């Protein structure tokens, strides 16, 4: 699906997709600003950031933050063009946000960030692709910054273990699970499934915190554990 969206001639549908994702996840864009202790971080890379609305919202509420939005070349080019034509107020909301093209399968070029956010990206991918995406960020996580390792923040609508929950949110999750399968061979994953992908990418990756939203949205804080 993303190869199709990235084709030059598909700019209108690419823009529609970006707007649809931003709208569909608007509650989580607000939730994430509250559930993660952002005061610990200064520079954050948002991998597969899409429209970049998360970065704009976070930097509005956390003045310590600067965000680098990374996405595919045409997605980034569209957004830069769109914002250059946007009203001054909208442009101002992106003052602390930069855009740069970066293929998430390629080794992460930013090694100086305090955190790497990857929100609603893994669910668009099968297990094999997820492992490639996670592997690409490992060298940046392992880079030691002032004695502290950076964190990977994996943000997803997390699937409860099968049949442990009958809530309305879970029904919605099952629909989204099928939508991910049909559109891009992806899936909604449980914490255990996400953890298995992390370990497959690198056994040194370990979840050190889980920040929970009020429904199924969770942010897994992942660190690169130093050898003893
Ligand atoms: C479901 S959207 C999530 C957007 C954003 N993270 C959010 O939470 O609103 C998935 C994003 O992954 C991006 N993407 C897909 N393939 C990519 C690739 N190879 N490299 C970088 N980004 C990619 C898409 O362009 C899209 O913006």
From TrEMBL:
GO biological process entries: methylation
Domain O-methyltransferase C-terminal: 9-201
One Pfam family in the UniProt entry: Methyltransf_2
Keyword entries, A-Z: Methyltransferase, S-adenosyl-L-methionine, Transferase
InterPro entries on file: COMT-like, COMT_C, SAM-dependent_MTases_sf
One term of GO molecular function: O-methyltransferase activity
PROSITE patterns per record: SAM_OMT_II
Transcription as UniProt keyword: no
Name of the molecule in the record: O-methyltransferase
Organism, scientific name: Lophiotrema nucula
């Amino acid at each position: 699906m993303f190869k199709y969206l990235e084709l030059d001639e598909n700019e209108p549908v690419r823009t529609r997709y970006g707007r649809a994702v931003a709208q569909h996840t608007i509650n989580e864009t607000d939730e994430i600003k509250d559930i993660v202790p952002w005061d610990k971080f200064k520079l954050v890379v948002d991998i597969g950031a899409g429209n970049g609305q998360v970065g704009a919202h976070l930097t509005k509420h956390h003045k310590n933050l600067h965000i680098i939005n990374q996405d595919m070349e045409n997605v980034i080019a569209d957004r830069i063009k769109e914002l250059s034509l946007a009203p001054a107020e909208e442009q101002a909301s992106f003052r602390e946000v930069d855009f740069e093209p970066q293929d998430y399968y390629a080794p992460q070029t930013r090694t100086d960030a305090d955190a790497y956010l990857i929100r609603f990206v893994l669910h668009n991918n099968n297990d094999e692709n997820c492992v490639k995406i996670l592997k690409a960020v490992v060298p940046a996580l392992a880079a030691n910054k002032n004695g502290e390792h950076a964190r990977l923040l994996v943000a997803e609508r997390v699937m409860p273990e099968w049949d442990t929950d009958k809530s309305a949110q879970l029904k919605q999750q099952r629909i989204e699970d099928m939508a991910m399968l049909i559109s891009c061979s992806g899936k909604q994953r449980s914490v255990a499934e996400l953890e298995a992908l992390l370990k497959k990418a690198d056994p040194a990756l370990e979840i050190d915190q889980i920040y929970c939203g009020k429904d199924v949205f969770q942010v897994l804080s992942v660190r690169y554990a130093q050898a003893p």
